[in-house]
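User: Can you model how zinc ion sits in this protein?
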Amino acid sequence: MDLKKVLERASIRSSGAVIIGSNIMVDGHEPNYPIRIITHIHRDHIKDINKSVREASLIIGTPPTLEILRELGYIIPEHKSLPLGYEKFIKLDDGEFKLVPSKHVIGSAQVFFRDYILGIDIGYTSDFKDPGKGTPIMNVDVLIIESTYGKPEWSRPMKDVTEDLFIDLVKQLLAQGPVYIYGYHGKLQEAMHILRCGGVIAPFLAPYRVYRVSKITEKYGYEIGELYLETSEMANEILRTKWYVLFEHLSKIRQRVMSSSLKAHHIILTGWEFETACRRLNERIWRIALSDHGDFEDLMSYVSQSSPQLVIVDRARGGSAADVFANEITKNLRIRAIPMPISAPSIESFMR
Ligand SMILES: [Zn+2]
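Assistant: Here's the modeled complex, given as structure tokens:
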């Protein structure tokens, strides 16, 4: 495998754009690429979307991804957008690609590209968890992979019991008063789904954006159940009963904790908790290690099952964890791994 040639066809730029072949940029923008793929709704993957809308000819994402982005206020004109279901190949002049399912958030996807020029397969995982179960493994020659929890100490040994602990905690706390749950879009809806499947029947309340995104996820098969807009008349009645779960974007936690009744309990959903699945921070606030990313062990497991010839580790989003993760791959799996973006002289060192 000629590394120089491969890196011309598969790379990550400092803009955060993942470049695949001659036409495709994923999750970031670079000039002169006609196709922008958005793997999912998280902010670090929709960077420079307005630039892409202006300059590219096509914006591609799964139907829920594009629908939710519009709901969140992004303008993607119909004539430039292509909602693409999983496993449907699109042919280009230099290769063909498809979106592959992933377990991360509603609508999230991996990207698989068959490169006609080099005769190799290139895959970009984007963010994922549960490799081999919820997230299918792509068997490719060049694997571009995320590295959010790319350090060996970032493992969650309790990950298999977290959902059950979360359900039990919410049930327990609901007996004492209202429960507020905080997370990002996508994770909040997953939390609703987990609680409903776990038998939580209390009504759910949400502010406008969370409510709207939840309604879309429900359309795509999530179990959301009884959910009311916080400002609706029905919600007014429910607030009086003090028996409800309110879902709020993580950025609003401070105001919510300050303004809610002392009987209310607050649960933060975060992946940045490794020692325990459930931690009590004080009288009223809890933290649950519910992550939408795999931990270190999951990342390694994806690479070893995919067994590529080359791994490109996403440093644009993963930061220094990408360097550590690339090292671990080379050391433990004996597969060449390069964190990107890196400087030209550093790339030279990988060529040797
Ligand atoms: Zn994400």
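A couple of observations from the model: The two ends are 13 Å apart (CA to CA). The pocket of zinc ion is lined by residues 40, 42, 45, 104, 127 (CB under 6 Å).
User: Helpful, thanks.
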